[in-house]
Specification:
By secondary structure, the chain is α/β, with parallel strands linked by helices. The chain folds into three domains: 3-89 and 150-180 and 283-315, ATPase, nucleotide binding domain (Nucleotidyltransferase, domain 5), CATH 3.30.420; 94-121 and 128-145; 189-279, Nucleotidyltransferase, domain 5 (2-Layer Sandwich), CATH 3.30.420.40. The protein contains seven helices and 15 strands. The strands form three sheets. The protein has a seven-stranded mixed sheet, with helices on both faces. Strands 12-11-10-13-14 form a five-stranded mixed sheet, with helices on both faces. Strands 6-8-7 form a three-stranded antiparallel sheet. The protein is globular and about 50 Å long.
Length: 316
């Protein structure tokens, strides 16, 4: 689930632009082992970034450029290229199924575009689109995870990066990046598992069957009931429509910045799901440098940054 183009050599720096902050991280490598060498979080003024699907997102360009420049300057090295993580609400993620998959990548892209055209909230000609193979269906055929965003909205994020002196060669949504970080970890979950990504402005829920996304839902905060209510609805859909037999793991990401704190969110979810809820820990995929403190807010901010960088390494 990604937008943009891969670069020949994956970058070692990732940037996230969220509604309330800009975050950045730099990885170093020893063989295949990654270490977070530097990390920073720079707050944004209220209203500077308003993540949405079909309208302008960067309301205060100078403020965002200043925050990006500050964040990049604290990484301890010159940064020219970076992977960029944007809020989930910037894009629409769908799961589409095909009984027969065209052998040509060009034909497959056209088939995907035709399929999502009907549900896209804007003309598909104005969109940037990518797809990732999902699960192979028991009855035959293939599922794909399709991500669609308005091209001009993505360009806004790319342009503020360029104004800060950085080329964003790949753009990915936050929950996709978190999933990739979990899958890159030393003990990624098996069976059916649930990821809950909670932020002050939106919540995303993803159900995976081993390494494949089989459900993806995003909602703006408090538009469809409480977080616990939406998680309960997802669990019911999972059991009734996806033939689920129970989650082996429930992972919680981003909750360190949610009002009430991670403990309140975790307890609420455990009461509804009757299973232990664990926080996403990016240290399963990348160790932390000596000067980085593993506080809940730092780990929450690092999860998408580490995930997008490790995903690029795997693909490359």
């Amino acid at each position: 689930m990604s937008l943009g183009l891969f670069q020949p050599v994956p970058p070692d720096v990732a940037i996230e632009i969220e509604a309330g902050h800009v975050a950045a991280a730099r990885l170093t490598w020893r063989g295949n082992a990654a270490t977070v060498a530097a990390h920073t979080i720079v707050p944004l003024p209220p209203g500077a970034v308003v993540p949405t699907l079909a309208a302008s997102n960067i309301a205060d360009v100078p403020a965002v450029v200043r925050a990006l420049t500050d964040a990049i300057g604290q990484l301890g090295t010159r940064v020219r290229r970076a992977a960029l993580v944007v809020p989930d609400t910037v894009a629409k993620v769908s799961l589409v199924r095909f009984e027969n998959v065209p052998p040509s990548s060009t034909d497959l892209l056209e088939l995907v575009r035709w399929q999502v055209r009907k549900s896209a909230p804007f003309p598909i000609e104005q969109a940037v689109l990518s797809y990732t193979p999902g699960a192979t269906l028991p009855e035959g055929g293939q599922e794909f995870i399709v991500t669609v965003a308005r091209a001009d909205v993505i360009e806004q994020y790319e342009q503020v990066c360029a104004a800060a002196g950085v080329h964003a060669g790949l753009v990915d949504v936050a929950t996709s990046s978190i999933i990739n970080g979990v899958l890159a970890g030393s003990a990624s979950p098996s069976g059916d598992w649930l990821l809950v990504h909670a932020t002050p402005s939106y919540t995303t829920l993803a159900v995976l069957r081993d390494r494949h996304v089989i459900f993806f839902r995003n909602r703006e905060e408090e538009t469809e009931g409480s977080l616990a209510d939406v998680v309960h609805q997802t669990a019911m859909y999972y059991e009734d429509r996806l033939k689920g037999i129970g989650f082996t793991h429930v992972l919680l990401a981003g909750s360190a910045v949610v009002p009430g704190g991670p403990e309140a969110v975790r307890r609420s979810l455990e009461e509804r799901l009757e299973i232990r809820v664990e926080a996403v820990d990016p240290r399963a995929a990348a160790t932390l440098g000596d000067r980085i403190t593993a506080s809940p807010d730092v780990l929450a901010a690092l999860a998408p940054l580490v995930g997008v960088l490790l995903r690029e390494r795997v693909v490359a």
